[in-house]
Specification:
Strand content: 15-25%
Keywords: Apoptosis, Phosphoprotein, SH2 domain
GO biological process, one term: signal transduction
Pfam families: SH2
Largest sheet: 5 strands, mixed
Order of helices and strands: HEEEEHE
Oligomer: single chain
Shape: globular
Number of strands: 5
Organism: Astyanax mexicanus
CATH class: Alpha Beta
Structural class: alpha+beta
Protein name: SH2 domain-containing protein
Strand order of the largest sheet: 4-3-2-1-5
Length: 111
């Protein structure tokens, strides 16, 4: 199927490395984020975030019943975009980022 992704997925960068994610975030302000494929588990994703302390990488894991969870303490979500939307207006359930929300999506640079 050749469908275009909805514009809300512009923060999804696919199979870039942690290092590449940090290079992109380095130029951005605090609370900027992007989502990429996890380098360690192929069904999971990583949320890379710029915080005042530097960079944070949080796992977006798929549960046995095909839901998604952020870190250890988030609610269950049906999809990654739902997680991103939820935490764009609420504080993250992640130690070290409790004061932060996902404010600035780093858009993928299309050619």
């Amino acid at each position: 199927k050749c469908r275009k992704d909805p514009p809300s997925l512009r923060w999804y960068h696919g199979a870039i490395s942690r290092t590449d994610a940090e290079s992109l975030l380095r130029l951005c302000k605090e609370a900027s984020y992007l989502v990429r494929n996890s380098e360690t588990s192929k069904n999971d994703f990583s949320l890379s975030l710029k915080s005042s302390q530097g960079f944070m990488h949080m796992k977006l894991s798929r549960t046995k019943d095909s839901k998604y969870i952020l870190g250890q303490n988030s609610c269950l979500f049906d999809s990654v975009p739902e997680i991103i939307h939820f935490y764009s207006s609420r504080k993250l359930p992640i130690k070290g980022a409790e004061h932060m929300s996902l404010l600035y999506p780093v858009a993928i640079r299309t050619l």
